[in-house]
Amino acid sequence: MESRPSIKRWSGGFFKLRPSLILALQREALSGISAYAGNFRPAGLAIVGSSHKPVEAHLVPELIEELCDYVNDNWEVKTAIHLAAYIMWRLNWIHPFADGNGRTSRILSYVVLSIRAQSVFPGTPTIPEQIVENRDPYFEALDAADAARTEGRVDVGRMEELLSSMLAKQLTSADERAGGIAFEESAAGD
């Protein structure tokens, strides 16, 4: 009997991260802004103000496949926060687009977080909005993951902490808008 590949189930159907989704999100994010929207970059590039040197352009498709494989292979065993943090770091590390890499990583990370957690999270500002409001902790978390990679490790712990705290802020705002006091009572030892 031939075995079927594992398909991830979520409440709305089946999900498998594919390069086509990454390209579609990037196309939407840069529609009308970039001539390369929805396509991997055709050449090498440098990131202004960063010591990170993105991979050569010819390596991008294979590395994007590996990113998708990591997420798909770990869908059932890793947390939603971990998968979102991994995507946030790895997509920025690969830097597959001529423009809009950060924007694309933020939206893809948030989409995967929501699907894996089987939730549409209420509240504002959302995680992507919070990152745009204060990029320093985001850059520090990316740098920490890059440093771990140079040691041969995958460690997105700082990014996980950052995303968790941002999700808490987003959810707390929804509770406050609803007139809730759950977080205040919990903090008071109720």
Explain what this protein looks like in three dimensions.
- It is a single chain.
- The chain is mainly α.
- The chain has a single domain (11-187), classed as Fic-like fold, CATH 1.10.3290.10.
- Helix content is 56%, strand content 3%.
- It has eight helices and two strands, in the order ββαααααααα.
- The protein has helices spanning 19-29, 60-73, 80-94, 101-117, 127-133, 136-150, 157-177, 182-187; strands spanning 8-10, 13-15.
- A hairpin with a 2-residue loop joins β1 and β2 (13-15).
- The radius of gyration is 18 Å and the shape is globular.
- It starts with 7 loop residues before the first strand and ends with a helix.
- The model is unreliable at 1-7 (pLDDT under 50).
Strand content: under 5%
| SSE-based structural type | mainly alpha
Q: Could you say what the CATH topology is called?
A: Fic-like fold
Order of helices and strands: EEHHHHHHHH
CATH domain class: Mainly Alpha
| CATH architecture descriptor text | Orthogonal Bundle
Number of helices: 8
Main β-sheet description: 2 strands, antiparallel
Main β-sheet, spatial strand arrangement: 1-2
CATH superfamily: Fido-like domain
Shape: globular
Percent range of helical residues: 55-70%
Average pLDDT works out at 89
Radius of gyration: 18 Å
Unreliable stretches covering 5 or more consecutive residues: 1-7
N- to C-terminal separation?
Answer: 57 Å
**Count of strand segments:** 2
Question: How are the SSEs placed, and which strands pair?
Answer:
Blueprint: E1 8-10, E2 13-15, H1 19-29, H2 60-73, H3 80-94, H4 101-117, H5 127-133, H6 136-150, H7 157-177, H8 182-187
Antiparallel strand pairs: 1-2
Helix pairs in contact: 1-4, 2-3, 3-4, 3-6, 3-7, 6-7
